[in-house]
Design a protein that fits this description.
heterodimer, A: 2 domains, B: mainly alpha, 13 helices
């Protein structure tokens, strides 16, 4: 009996140790970011490397807010504008579309659903060349500027997020009892009135999840920003930081401070609302 | 009621026709956007593959038949890139799925702080790529990085420091490791959700029959998971094979087929050839995607 108890105890310790190891592996790069961002120049390149800074400085963070040293604020602002616009538009476009999928019967529904869902499996790299070419041609045909604008990025990211947004919202709308809608329609509500007055007020969690999902896609995207953005003052965070890194004029501490502040908005949004987000993630996964 | 019905008939639209029109109106913005940004480029890349596209957009395009495809398949660099992509994809799909499975099984039990632990496991997956890339490049720095310190000085596994970024032989393992680390939470999340829906009574019954933990895993857990594992492998295969940004940002010395296509398009400015490569990849993937949507995924 004693050995049985002892074995159970050992098992518990072993499981605990394994869980701790997994969690450490997941957060380690974030700890590295924090540690290096607090080190003064020189201390981050000493050997052997150490996680605990010998001296702590907040100068790297102060530098981020100094536009003459580092255009971080400008990139942050660009990313924020693009991501907020893409996420808001995702809600506006996906809510009516998802309602049609969830509640209306129409010819070609199966085809559209499959088509849109398949679309989300095509990575950007398969699309970027012909898409770039199409945008250039459109730009010349209409004589409006599209390359090097936020607009083209917003519309691109919006289209990328629609398949999963439609899917998540459609599934959520199906869980709303049809009787509520029917009684609203007996009271004289039209279909569009139902969406506005019944569906939207009852779908808070799903709307939040879709908004954050679209925000994350736009906030993190690199390839299309790489292809479409030219002017230094228009770069988004992933594009701008990658650019600075490759100039070799980077200072590790400053880059790590920037990395951490880039990660904070999406990671904290996600962790705070994980409950709502995971349902969407398991739907078929977030494509990054 | 009669006048209303008559009125409907006069306008020639039944309730279902009106619903159909409304549905299409509601869906129009989504369909147009996805059509323009995803569907049109895929079709267009097939056409572009047969066309020589001059640098100057004012110059006319020229139909060249299979010339660009033939150039590609005769370029040994292309085949090397395909091999690198296959190695990267096979290793990252297998690695991230198995690690996700192991961690899901490990964490499918009651313990203090389980909710927080789950959130932490998802961090590599939800954090911005660019932040993670900087941290990893620092950790793998050949001169003062943690990895060389651990595996050369502390545990003498390597005989000397490795150049994880500049040397292609070592950059590839770093990129693979990174993508396993970054994408295992996806497998973890999908598998954990499935594990939690397996009835506990199945395990209890097996215990009564004297089954050990391996037997329970082998005969209860695995059959229940086969469907979700299949979905993960197919999806990750598609996504990892067409991965560009992770590979490109971590090291310029791992030229997978997507990096190869990017260089063709935006460094050699050979859009036609790049489109030919994309359309070859797209055609290969359309086959697997349609199979996937039909067989595995249920809307």
């Amino acid at each position: 009996m004693v050995t049985q108890v002892a074995r159970k105890r050992w098992e518990r310790i072993l499981v605990g140790a394994r869980i701790a190891a997994v969690l450490l592996a997941c957060v380690f790069p974030f700890i590295v970011m924090l540690s290096v961002s607090l080190k003064p120049p020189g201390d981050e390149t000493t050997y052997p490397p150490s996680l605990i800074p010998r001296r702590i400085t907040f100068k790297n963070y102060a530098d981020l807010f100094n536009p003459r040293l580092f255009p971080f604020m400008r990139y942050f602002q660009n990313s924020m504008v693009v991501a907020l616009a893409a996420a808001s538009l995702a809600i506006i476009v996906a809510v009516p579309g998802a309602y049609a999928f969830a509640r209306l019967k129409f010819a070609g529904r199966e085809l559209v659903q499959r088509g849109i869902l398949s679309a989300y499996m095509f990575s950007g790299v398969l699309l970027v060349v012909p898409y770039y070419r199409a945008v250039i041609r459109l730009q010349e045909a209409l004589s409006v500027q599209l390359v090097d604008t936020k607009l083209v990025l917003v519309l691109t990211y919006l289209a990328f997020t629609l398949p999963v947004s439609l899917y998540m919202l459609g599934n959520y709308f199906r869980t709303i009892p049809a009787e509520i809608e029917e009684s609203a329609m007996i009271d004289g509500c039209t279909r569009t009135g139902v969406i506005w007055r019944v569906i939207i007020p009852l779908s808070g969690p799903a709307l939040v999840a879709v908004f954050i999902y679209a925000f994350m896609i736009a906030w993190n995207e690199y390839l299309f920003a790489l292809v479409f953005l030219i002017s230094p003052e228009k770069l988004t965070l992933p594009r701008g930081l990658a650019e600075l890194f490759n100039t070799q004029h980077y200072i590790w501490g400053r880059m790590m401070a920037a990395s951490l502040l880039t990660a904070v908005p999406v990671v904290s949004l996600f962790l705070a609302l994980e409950r709502f987000m995971t349902a969407g993630l398991t739907v078929g996964g977030v494509k990054e | 009621m009669a006048p209303v019905l008559a009125a409907t008939r006069r306008r020639g639209s039944s309730v279902s026709q009106r619903e159909g029109r409304l549905a299409w109106a509601l869906l129009a913005p989504s369909v147009i956007l996805v059509g323009l940004v995803v569907v049109y480029p895929i079709i267009s890349s097939i056409r572009m593959g047969f066309t020589h596209i001059p640098l100057d957009p004012a110059m006319p395009e020229e139909f060249v038949g299979l010339e660009q495809y033939s150039e590609i398949v005769h370029d040994p660099e292309f085949w090397l890139a395909i091999v690198r992509s296959l190695v990267h994809t096979a290793a990252t799909v297998a690695g991230s799925t198995l690690l996700g499975l192991a961690v899901a099984v490990l964490m499918n039990r009651e313990f203090a702080g389980r909710g927080i632990a789950r959130g932490i496991v998802l961090m590599p997956y939800v954090a911005p790529l660019i932040s993670l890339v900087f941290a990893w490049r620092y950790m793998f720095h050949p001169v003062y990085g943690f990895v060389n310190y651990w595996f050369v000085d502390i545990l003498p596994i390597f005989s000397g420091p490795r150049d994880w970024v500049e040397s292609p032989a070592f950059a590839m393992p770093m990129v693979i490791l990174f993508d396993i680390w970054r994408y295992f939470p996806y497998a973890f999340l999908m598998i954990l959700a499935r594990l939690q829906s397996i009835p506990k009574t199945l395990y209890e019954a097996a215990e009564v029959d004297g089954a050990g933990s391996w037997a329970k895993f082998r005969h209860i857990t695995m059959p229940e998971l086969s469907f979700v594992l299949g979905s993960i492998v197919v999806l990750r295969w598609i996504w990892n094979f067409t991965k560009f940004d992770d590979v490109w940002l971590l090291s310029r010395n791992v030229v997978t087929v997507t990096v190869y296509a990017y260089l063709r398009a935006f460094q050699s400015f050979d859009l036609g050839q790049a489109a030919a490569i994309s359309s070859l990849l797209a055609l290969g993937l359309i086959a697997s995607v349609s199979l996937y949507v039909k067989k595995v995924l249920r809307w």
